[in-house]
């Protein structure tokens, strides 16, 4: 008997339900971060907007407090990019991401030549020693590493340390309304606990399915940056339900995970810049039409704040801040009905109130 088929619309509703984008959740910021397997965080502000879109009573200070208290850390993990992860997830996920970071050291076009011939074990040891007594930025590390590795390029050496040693970006980097240059400390010393001795890729993939499923092996690889995950999902197959997507590709899911009726209404939502829900599948058809992708994903790596209408990307936003007024500009990518425009305006005003509470005039404007 063949696998049950799931349309892109059904997949979209399932993913939105797990992401708390069908209805906002009463979870705490910490519990939501763990449920989502972390938040994309290469810039300081996006994790705050990701939580605002998903939680009923989110206060920005709650995430800042978690970062200051070291319950949440900013660290390079999945896909080799910075995530805001719970300390426990960082200790488990970061070692699992190491093969991806090792691969980068040998293939990165910017730094590969600069690391040629460098003793990587010695480089890792030096990196740990240099941040042992105080956090340092990569810029501060460069001349110190050049002293230890004469004739080598400091930028390449600092990039090597980033890949070899689990490092966190310490506060004030990532704090709401403050931030600062990313100064680094080792994950273990910052949270006072060792890396997971035997991190489980099986558990990591089950967590991924809980937050992003149903998903294929290629989807899981797009989310994590890791390879050969089809073998892991085959091993987990007896514990999972298997569906077929519109392309016929196998999709794996937890048996008891929510899969709402495809007709379930999906409210307007304004996603964070770099929102991970748009980055965690090889096939993005569940939320995003292919022809719109290049309008949301820019060539220089920026992922714009997308607007979901009826469960699909329909527009993106930009914020213009002036002295006494802040404007959310909404650029439609498809025709948007008047009722949906009214909903976007209401959601946009709520977003501006969250992000700019001290500004007197808050305006939502369509740019078409």
Write the layout of secondary structure elements.
Blueprint: E1 4-5, H1 8-18, H2 29-35, E2 39-40, H3 46-54, H4 60-68, E3 72-76, E4 82-86, H5 87-96, H6 98-107, H7 112-115, H8 120-130, H9 138-148, H10 154-164, E5 167-169, E6 184-186, H11 187-191, H12 201-212, H13 217-224, H14 229-236, E7 241-244, E8 250-253, E9 269-270, H15 290-296, E10 306-309, E11 312-321, E12 325-332, H16 338-355, E13 361-366
Parallel strand pairs: 1-7, 12-13
Antiparallel strand pairs: 2-4, 3-4, 3-5, 5-6, 7-8, 9-10, 10-11, 11-12
- The fraction of residues in strands falls at 15-25%
Q: Structural class, from helix and strand content?
A: alpha+beta
Share of helix, binned: 40-55%
Task: Output the number of helix runs.
Answer: 16
Biggest sheet architecture? 5 strands, antiparallel
Succession of helices and strands: EHHEHHEEHHHHHHEEHHHHEEEHEEEHE
Instruction: Output the strand order for the largest sheet.
Output: 2-4-3-5-6
Uncertain spans:
none
- Count the E strands: 13
Mean pLDDT: 95
Straight-line N-to-C gap: 49 Å
Shape descriptor:
globular
